[in-house]
Structures are given as C-alpha cells and as structure tokens.
Amino acid sequence: MSTPLPFPLRPGRTHEVCGPGATSFACAVAATTTGPILWVNERHRREGLFPRGLAAFFDPDRLLMARGKDQTDTLAVMEEALRDGSVPLVIGEIRSPIGLTEGRRLQLAAKTGPATGLCLVAQGVGSNAAETRWHAAPALQKGLREGVSAPRLRWRQIKNKSGPCRVWEVRWNARDRAPEILDVTDSAPEPV
C-alpha cells in the first residue's frame, strides 16, 4: 500500500479525535510511542480506563493517569506535561468546547516539549488550533460474525493542516500491537 499509516502523529503538535472509536484510536496512537503516557480526565466522571484492559495496545505499566477537578484544570495539566516534554504522549478527555486561546496554548506547549498531545473531544467541540482532527468509528461490515476478534475500524481525517484528508480502514493486530491497513482513500471531510 503506497499510503503509510498516519502514525505516529506529528510530534510537537496537538491533535484531536472524536467519535465512538476515539478511545481505541488514542490507544493505537499510544502503541506507536515509547516511554510513559499521561492520560488526563476530570475527576467527577464516573467512567474511566481499566489499564489492564489496554494490554492489547501497549504495556499498561506505561500509563500514568491524572484527574483534574474540571476542564480548566485538565487543560492546565495537559499544557504543563506537554511543555515539560518528559512524557512523549499526553492524552486528555475534553467534553466542552476548547477555545482558540486554550488550543494555541496546547500547541505552543507541545512544540516546546516537544511532545504529542491528543484530545478526545465530543463531536463539534474541537479547537481551530488542532493540527489534525479525526473521526474514529467501527466500519460497517457485511457478514460480520459473532466472535470476530478484529473488526474493521474507520479513521477519517476531518482536518489536516499539513496535507489532504484521508480515510483509513484498519483492523487491529493485537500480536504486533499495530493496525493493519485494509484500505486508504482520499476524501473530503464529512461534516461531523
């Protein structure tokens, strides 16, 4: 296949992902990195990650978790970690719109680090400052059977500051801890 995987995401930048597959996309990004991974979310949220459940993606011992009191605190923790650079990947779960100022602060911090930032955002909540924005979801498959261990995933770029938007159809390979490309197409972003 002539088009390579979109990973690793461009370092020294902050990216965004939305959609029902956002967490698995973030785990796939983490699988392409080495060193610790900082995952930040708000402490009032009841749902959370079960680190041992991420073993198909990366060694859960690499995962550091932080909980901010609110979104402002979550963004501040992300910004400081990106600026410090000792954690090469900082992932934050963001539920409210990110203002342009906050988005630019994350970009500047990532560039200073240099580190890679990834915000898991609700649809329509991203920042104009993001380097790329993705929509991650399962791909519809005809004839999908119960017990299929690696369903298709669709990763659609809906924003890309450094090139054309593309759509990757992949299947996760747990043995190699990497996605297998099934199809890549150029595509105009769909409204999300």
Q: What's the SSE blueprint?
A:
Layout: E1 14-18, H1 22-31, E2 37-42, E3 63-68, H2 71-84, E4 89-94, H3 100-112, E5 116-121, E6 132-138, E7 152-160, E8 166-173, E9 178-186
Parallel strand pairs: 1-5, 1-6, 2-3, 2-4, 4-5
Antiparallel strand pairs: 6-7, 7-8, 8-9
Helix pairs in contact: 2-3
Tag the structure with descriptive keywords.
alpha/beta; 3 helices; nine-stranded mixed β-sheet; P-loop_NTPase; 192 residues; single chain; Rossmann fold; 32% strand
Q: Would you mind describing this structure in some detail?
A:
The chain has a nine-stranded mixed beta sheet with strand order 3-2-4-5-1-6-7-8-9, with helices on both faces. The model has no long low-confidence stretch (mean pLDDT 86). Strand 8 and strand 9 form a beta hairpin. 38% of the residues are buried. It is of the alpha/beta class and 192 residues long. 19% of the residues lie in helices and 32% in strands. It has helices spanning 22-31, 71-84, 100-112; strands at residues 14-18, 37-42, 63-68, 89-94, 116-121, 132-138, 152-160, 166-173, 178-186. The longest helix is centred in the middle third of the chain and has 14 residues, at 71-84. It is built from three helices and nine strands; from the N terminus they run E-H-E-E-H-E-H-E-E-E-E-E. Helix 2 runs parallel beside helix 3. It has a single domain, classed as Rossmann fold (3-Layer(aba) Sandwich), CATH 3.40.50.300. This is Protein ImuA. InterPro entries: P-loop_NTPase.
